[in-house]
C-alpha cells in the first residue's frame, strides 16, 4: 500500500510541482567547423559545458553542428565562436515558437480510427492505442512487456504474429525521449502492418513475427510532454543531476568512446553497463528471443542517416559489406517518393565514434544478421521539433525503405523468402540434394 502511494506520488509529482520549462528566446545555431581545431573546440564544449545543448555531434565527418543556447549564454557562445573564427548562422532565434506550434494529442480508449499522422501522441495515447489494437485484432496482436522503468512504468509493446514459427523483426523506438518522430514512425509501421492493402506490406506482416516497442524510454517521454521538451535521458537521479543516456548504457564497449562519465551531460553513460532498469530489463527481454531475430531496427532523429554497427571503430566488422549494400538500396527506395536523401554508413563513419548503444550490443551479443539505426528527418532545419506536416511523408518513405530492406535481405540470403512452408520445403530439398551429392 505504501509502495503504491509512493508510486502515485512520484507519478503525479511533475504535474503538481513542476511547470513546463519554457524556451523563450533560446536560439538554435548552425555551426560550420572547418578544421580539426574547430571540431576540437566544439567537442570540448560539448564534453564539459551542460549549458549548451548539442543537437548533433561535432566531428570531422559532418559539415555542420546544431547547438541550442539559452538567451543568457548566447553572447558567450558567439564570442567563443568568433574568437576561433568558426562560422555560424542562427537557424531559429526562438525555439519556443516552434514548440508552441507542435500539436500533441492523447487518445481515448475504443476509438481506433482516431490515431492520425498529423500530430504527436503522448504516452497514454500510444499505450491506449496498443490496448485497442489487441482488442481489434485478437488473433494477431499480443501486448508484450519489454521491461520496467526507473519510475515503475511498463515498457509496453506489441507483437504482430500470423502464426507460430516465424523469424522476428524487432522495432525499437523512443529510447531518446525528445526524438518524437521516432515513436510516430514506429506506430505508423505498426498501423501499416495491420491495415494496409498493399501486397508487399501484407506479405511482410505475414512472413515475420514483429516485436514492436514504440517508446523504450517512457519516463523520459512523459517528461518531454509535461516538463522539458528537450529531455533525452531517463529520469533516474544521480547526485544532484538526473538522467542516464539509455543509448550509452548497453553492455558493449561501455564508456569506451563518445559517452560521458559526467551525470550533468546528455551523453552520461550511467554507473556501469546496464545500470539502468530500462536497458537491463529490455535487453533481458530481447535476449530471450535473440536467436530468432533476423533484423533489428532502432529509430532516432535527426540527420537522415541509416547507420550500422559498430560505433567504436570505422573498421568494417561482421557482415559490413552486405549490410551496407542492403542499407544503401533501402535508402534508394526511401528517396523515391519525395527525394529525401539518407546517407548509409557504420555509426563511427556516419557521425562519430560512440559506444554503449543498443544496436552494437544486439549485433555483438546476439549475432543478429541485420541491425540498423535510423536517424530520421530532418537534416537540421527543424531538428527535434519536426513540423507535423512532415510526420506522414517521413513515415511513408521510411515504410518504403523497410519493405526494401526485407526484399534486399532476402536477395542477399539473410531471410527466408515467401512463406515458411515453402522455404522449409526448399531447405529439406537442399539438404537431400547435399546428401545425395555427398554419397
Ligand atoms: C525575447 O526577446 C525579445 C526581443 O529581444 C524580447 O522583447 C522579449 O521580451 C524576450 N522574451 C523573453 C520571455 O525573455
Ligand atoms: C569494436 O567493438 C567490437 C564489438 O564489440 C569489437 O569486436 C572490436 O574489437 C572493437 N574494435 C576496436 C578497435 O576497439
Ligand atoms: C535537407 O533536405 C532537404 C530535403 O531532402 C534538401 O532539399 C536540402 O538540400 C537538404 N539540406 C542539406 C544541407 O543537406
Ligand atoms: Zn537518438
UniProtKB/TrEMBL annotation:
It is found in: Secreted. Belongs to the peptidase M14 family. This is Zinc carboxypeptidase A 1. Residues 1-18 form the signal peptide. The gene is HaOG206507. Gene3D superfamilies: Metallocarboxypeptidase-like, Zn peptidases. Keywords: Carboxypeptidase, Disulfide bond, Hydrolase, Membrane, Metal-binding, Metalloprotease, Protease, Secreted, Signal, Transmembrane, Transmembrane helix, Zinc. GO terms for biological process: proteolysis. GO terms for molecular function: metallocarboxypeptidase activity; zinc ion binding. PANTHER family: PROTEASE FAMILY M14 CARBOXYPEPTIDASE A,B, ZINC CARBOXYPEPTIDASE A 1-LIKE PROTEIN. Involved in the digestion of the blood meal.
